[in-house]
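LOG
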Amino acid sequence: MKVLVTGTSEGIGKSIAIKFLEQGHNVIGIDLNTSTITHKLYTHIEGNICDKNLPDIEDIEILINNAGVQDSGNDIDINLKGTISITEKYGIQPKIKSIVFIASASATTGAEFPEYVASKGGIVAYMKNVALRIAQYGATSNSISAGGVITKLNQHIIDNPKLWKQVLNETLLNKWASSEEIADFTYFISVINKSMTGQDIFIDNGEALKSNFIW
């Protein structure tokens, strides 16, 4: 299938692109930075998801909205408005089969930087709007709300023993997810899944659920 993934230079987006390439799909990546992915089925476009002049790409079958920033001062413009722009340009069309949005557990818990939380909460709401609109094509729209993920973005926490212990203690399973695990979930809900749509999938190792019962 013809797959478009945003934010493929590193982290979750790179892992998602590699997962689809390993399964034999044609993948197009959009990122502000260059990519280290070298595969005959991969095409890289250096560009900003907020750019209205991105190239026309016809017949995208799967769209993975992953690109984003955190506590940048432009979180809403990039994470939310940029994602909407990409989706309207490439995703709302008859050939589409699935759209996946990488949101955040903080969209539900509120436990993050204010504009980041607002941007990701908006993505979850927009995901549902998209599900209503692409159902006419038999296509699905879902989001993944990840908690802690082991990526370069979080390296300052991972490398600090005190912070690392604190964040792991906030989860039931005492761990964070890998970017490859998020990629596996993304592949499942976009390719294998045919019936679930309009849903936000929580992958947070039980962080939101954790509570202590006092009697």
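LOG (cont.) second protein
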Amino acid sequence: MCCFQKSFKRDYIENFIRFCQYPPKTWIGLKKPPRFIVSDGARIPNPEWRPYVVNVSKSAFKKGHVPEKENYSLSNGAIKEMLAIISSFYQYLLLEEYTFSNPVALIRQKSKFVQKRQSHTQVRRLSQQQWQTLIESAKLMASENPIAHERTLFMLSALYSMYLRISELSASDRWGPTMNDFHKDQDGLWWFTTVGKGNKERQIAVSDTMLAALKRWRKYLGLSVFPSPADDSPLFPVHRGKGPLSNTTHIRAIVQTCFDHAIQRLAKSEHPEEAETMMAATVHWLRHTGISDDVKIRPREHVRDDAGHRSSAITDKYIDIELKERHKSAKKKLI
């Protein structure tokens, strides 16, 4: 351990980061297979796994572009995560008195690897035109084929209106959404209980519009208008067989079908440029969109608690009023 303490200095870590930025091509993969596989009951290393992966954006993939090893680059976020992990390890060594300094702190202080931003990153969300087209597409699809898409419409409503993550929509070993997760308190107010990041349970205030979406969904299923406290049936049942939706990949595919429908409509509309930017949208954008729209009209603290943010600082990232005002004051400057 003394040898470790003397040899692993700041320049060693910087050299490691440089290696991660330009690894050997044989270390780079074009997909993300699992690191281990099970063979004959034993857990063994997967020969297809690679420590580094190159990919293309969702919109580029739709246009026919494929990942190539020559285009590999280490993102700013990946470098930050790497430094955080190494720093955490050094903090452990400090506590155990195996070392008496954390070289990562020096790298972070004047880092040539991590780009620093003047303000928070712009939130990835749908524009008002894109969201309206998306929800209209979902309603149209549900009316044309209710068996396939009534669930899709309710799913989009929940993702947007209650800021749900995809993991909060799907069933897992620890939790699964059921009908009685919608419940009314003694004041007649409706709430939805979910279990989110860090296995933390939270209650979300249910709007009248979301309540109407629930009523429509239950009517289609042939159930009573509102769930009883004993109704523990799946909120999102599978179409074939019994039980809840548990495959997040399947949920993404369901939402993507609606995205594709909306993109086609936008491409033929007066706003074809909206179709181009929407090609990069993911399921998580719906959560961002719901929060961004609500923080304009609801108290920040209310949105924070419904979204399950650890602090108001996270919710503040969705407030872009100052950006708009700054741009407004600069728009008519003369040269």
